[in-house]
């Protein structure tokens, strides 16, 4: 193949990737809108969409019948027949979701298991995915698997350097899982992938500078997005908010001498205060919202104060446009969002807090699965016909 042909094919692949990413991350749109948003001409967009349809990556639908002005343009949508599997191993369960191109969760399952090891996760995921392949996902193309792990994950190769609550050290889960399923596997930190999901599909999609904190059974992690880019640090370990010193102004609020944030703002303490055993977030939210028990109310108030102080520090250091809270941190805020948001702003410099938005994660319990699946789609999105 001559150099010009190679160049032309390279440009076409780049344009195919741009169109697929657009409908995947931004939703269905007409050919006319794609033309306007990409700057490509109409005939090029028509050719690109046609190739993506042939590859089974997008579908075309009839335009809105209520539109009466001008020639109608077909709507282009990501294909629901292409999925990635998102997986989140936690200390009390393994959660899985089959997430289609476009970000919709087609199937979801939570398997209770205490402190799963690598072999446990591989066995559970292989069993559930095999069941989906024979049933709900029969005939569906599985592009890959993404794991959202609550721990330090090396960006270069996905090795889990340390997941303390799972007791994983230098653990390779990508290799065994890829061998079991026969698809590519990517691994990332759970909170960083949650930040990715909220930036692309959720509460932060209109913002370029975002602080994200995720609270789960294993502790508190986070993600940082600056100028629209997820910041991972040198090794990929950035965002460990739970390991920062807890901002405890009143000694009476401290529960662990010298403890870090996740020692003081802690899901297990909330579960105990609510009188529950092993609830999911929905059950915990319902119990804390309805509770009139003084001990439970005092514990939630204590954790809210410490969390607000931490976020005030984040505002002063990073000056974000938005803070997004996931997991039990969102529950703490939502018990009285106006009071909580005002407390965060009060603890920050007035100029830094101007225009600050604070929100619960819009994707709820699906945020980590969607973020992990989007990471698994990365190779396809970069080169749809590769």
UniProtKB/TrEMBL annotation:
Name of a matching Pfam family: ROK
InterPro entries noted in UniProt: ATPase_NBD, HTH_MarR-typ, ROK, WH-like_DNA-bd_sf, WH_DNA-bd_sf
Any one GO molecular function term: DNA-binding transcription factor activity
Stretches assigned to the HTH marR-type domain: 19-68
Database matches in Gene3D superfamilies: 3.30.420.40, Winged helix-like DNA-binding domain superfamily/Winged helix DNA-binding domain
Assigned protein family: Belongs to the ROK (NagC/XylR) family.
PANTHER family: BIFUNCTIONAL UDP-N-ACETYLGLUCOSAMINE 2-EPIMERASE_N-ACETYLMANNOSAMINE KINASE (PTHR18964:SF149), ROK (REPRESSOR, ORF, KINASE) FAMILY (PTHR18964)
Full protein name: N-acetylglucosamine repressor
Organism: Microbacterium azadirachtae
Encoding gene, per UniProt annotation: nagC_3
């Amino acid at each position: 193949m001559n150099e010009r042909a190679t160049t032309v094919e390279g440009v076409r692949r780049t344009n195919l990737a741009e169109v697929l990413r657009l409908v995947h991350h931004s939703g269905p749109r007409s050919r006319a809108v794609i033309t306007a948003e990409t700057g490509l001409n109409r005939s090029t967009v028509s050719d690109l969409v046609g190739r993506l349809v042939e590859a089974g990556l997008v579908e075309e639908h009839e335009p809105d019948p209520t539109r009466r002005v001008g020639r109608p343009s077909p709507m282009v949508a990501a294909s629901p027949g292409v999925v990635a599997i998102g997986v989140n191993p936690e200390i009390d369960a393994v959660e899985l979701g089959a997430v289609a191109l476009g970000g919709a969760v087609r199937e979801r399952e939570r398997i209770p298991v205490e402190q799963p090891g690598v072999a446990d996760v591989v066995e559970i995921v292989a069993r559930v995915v095999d069941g989906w392949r024979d049933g709900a996902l029969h005939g569906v193309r599985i592009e890959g698997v993404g794991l959202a792990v609550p721990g330090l994950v090396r960006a270069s190769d996905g090795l889990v350097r340390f997941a303390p609550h799972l007791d994983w050290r230098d653990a390779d889960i990508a290799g065994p899982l890829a061998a079991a399923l026969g698809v590519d596997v990517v691994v990332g930190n759970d909170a960083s992938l949650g930040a990715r999901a909220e930036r692309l599909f959720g509460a932060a999609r209109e913002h370029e500078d975002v602080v994200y904190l995720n609270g789960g059974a294993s502790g508190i992690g986070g993600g940082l997005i600056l100028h629209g880019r997820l910041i991972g640090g040198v090794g990929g370990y950035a965002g460990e908010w739970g390991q920062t010193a807890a901002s405890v102004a009143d000694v009476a609020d401290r529960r662990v001498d010298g403890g870090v944030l996740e020692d003081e703002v802690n899901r297990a303490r909330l579960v105990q205060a609510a009188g529950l055993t092993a609830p999911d977030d929905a059950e915990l939210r319902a119990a804390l919202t309805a509770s009139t028990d003084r001990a439970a109310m005092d514990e939630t108030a204590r954790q809210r104060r410490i969390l607000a102080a931490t976020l005030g520090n984040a505002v002063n250091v990073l000056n974000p446009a938005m803070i997004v809270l996931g997991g039990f941190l969102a529950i703490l805020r939502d018990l009285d969002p106006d009071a909580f948001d005002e407390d965060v702003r009060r603890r920050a410099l007035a100029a830094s807090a101007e225009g600050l938005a604070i929100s619960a994660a819009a994707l709820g319990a699906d945020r980590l699965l969607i973020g992990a699946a989007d990471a698994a789609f990365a190779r396809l999105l970069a080169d749809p016909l590769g």
